[in-house]
Write a structure and sequence with these properties.
CATH class of the largest domain: Alpha Beta
Strand order of the largest sheet: 2-1-5-4-3
CATH topology of the largest domain: Heat Shock Protein 90
Number of helices: 16
Strand content: 15-25%
Radius of gyration: 41 Å
Distance between the termini: 84 Å
Number of domains: 4
Bound molecules: adenosine-5'-diphosphate, magnesium ion
Number of strands: 10
CATH architecture of the largest domain: 2-Layer Sandwich
Length: 455
Amino acid sequence: MTTRLGALRADYLAGLRTYLEDESEAGLAYSYELGRRAMMERLGLLDMAALHRAALDTLVLPAPPSDQPRLMEAATAFFNELLAPFELSIEGYRAALTASEERFQLAVSGAMAGLWDWNPQTDEIYFSPQFKRIMGYEDSELPNERQAHFGAIDEQDFERVTQSLMSHLDRRQVYDVEYRVRTKSGEPRWVHSRGQALWNDSGEPYRMVGWILDITDRKRDEEALRASREEMRRLSAHIQHVREEEKARIARELHDDLGQQLTALKMATSLLESGVRTDQPWPAQSTLNGLYAMIDELVESIRHIAADLHPVMLDDLGLIPAIDNLIDEFSARYGIRVIRHIDPDAIAFNRECRIDMFRMVQEALTNVARHSGASEVVLDIVRADPHCIVRIVDNGRGAAIDGAKGRHSFGLLGMRERAALLGGEIRISSEPGAGFALTAILPLASLEAKDASSS
Ligand SMILES: Nc1ncnc2c1ncn2[C@@H]1O[C@H](COP(=O)(O)OP(=O)(O)O)[C@@H](O)[C@H]1O
Ligand SMILES: [Mg+2]
C-alpha cells in the first residue's frame, strides 16, 4: 500500500502543481481520476488528507504570503475533486441513505443487490461481483461495458428501461424499474433496478450508482396468484351462469312436463266429475286406471327432475351404488361399454366427499360422450394408500393438451376445483388419436375423515 500511496502522492503533487498554474478543468478532472484510482486501490480518506497535506507543504507554504489565499483556494478545489469519488462511493452512498426509510432498505438489501456504477460521460461502468452472479456470470466474465448488460435486457422491456434512464438523467425523475433479462445461460429472470445519478454544476450527469435485485420468485408468485385469481373469477362467473341456466331448465321441465301432465290430469278428473253429475254409471275401472297411470307418470317426472338436481341415491345407498347407477344409465344411453375396477368396500367414503366424487365421475363420463367418440371406457376407483385413485380412460380420439386451452371449458376446471377442495389433484394425459386419460389423486385422509355416517 505504501508504494501505491507513494506513486499516487507523486501524481497528486504533479497534478496540483500544474493546476495551481493554470486552474484548468482538465486539472480538476485529473484530481477526480486520482480519487477514483485511490478508491480502487482501497486507500482511505486519511491517506488522502495526508497526501494533500504533504502537497500543501511543498507547493503552497513556500509561496509568498500574498499568493497564499489564491493558492489555498485553488488547492482546496483540487482536493475536493480528489475526495468526490469517496463521497460518492457506494459506502458513502449507503451511509447517506439511512436518512430515509426507503433508502435504508437499500442498505439492507445491499447484500443481495448487485451494484453498478456508471459514468455517463465515458460510458465506463462497474458491475459488482454480485451483479455478475445475478446475471449468471463469473466475476471475470462480464466485461465492464454498459452494453454487456443492456444486451441482456428483454426486448419487450428495453424501451421502457432506456426511457426511464433518460428521464432520470435529463429530468431527474426517479429511476426505479423492473424488467426482464436473460442470464448468461439464456434463462429468463426478473430484476428490480434502482439508481441515482449525480450532476455537475452545469447539470450534466457525471456518475450514476445503483443496484439490481433478482425478483424472479416474487414475480412468479405474483403471476401465479394473478392467474389463479383470474381462474377463480371466471369460475364463479360461470357458476352464476350455470345456476341461471339450471333454473331455466327446471322451469322449462316443470312447465312443459309437469304442467302438461297436470293439465291432462285435470281434464280427466273433470270428465269424471261430469260423469258423476249426469248420473252416469260409476266410472269404469279403465278410466280410473288411466288416472293412476297419469299420476304414476307425474311421480316419475318429479323423481327424474329431482334426481337430476341431486342424486338421491348418493344419500340413500352411498357413492359406489350411485356411480354404478350412473354408469348403467350412461352405457344404456350412449352405447359405450364401461369396464369397472371398483372395490366397493375398499374405501369408506364420508358424506361430505360424495357429491364431489360423483360429479367428477359424471363430468368425465359426460366428456367421453361429448368429445371422445370412444367405444369403451375403463373406470378405476382404487385404494393406493395414502390415496384414492380415480381413473377414467377412454379409447377415443383424445385431445391436444395445452395450457392456453380451456378459456371456456369449465368441466375440467370444475373437476380441478373439486379435487383441490379434497386436497388432491387432477392429472390428464392425452394425445390426439390416442384416447383420453383423466386421473384424480385424492388423499384418503379427507375422503374417509370421520363423520356421522359413512358409506
Ligand atoms: N374424453 C375426452 N376425449 C377427448 N377430448 C376431451 C375429453 N375430455 C375433455 N376433452 C377436451 O377437453 C376440453 C375441455 O373439457 P371441459 O373442461 O369438460 O369442457 P367442455 O366439455 O365444456 O368442452 C373439451 O372441450 C375437449 O376438447
Ligand atoms: Mg365437459
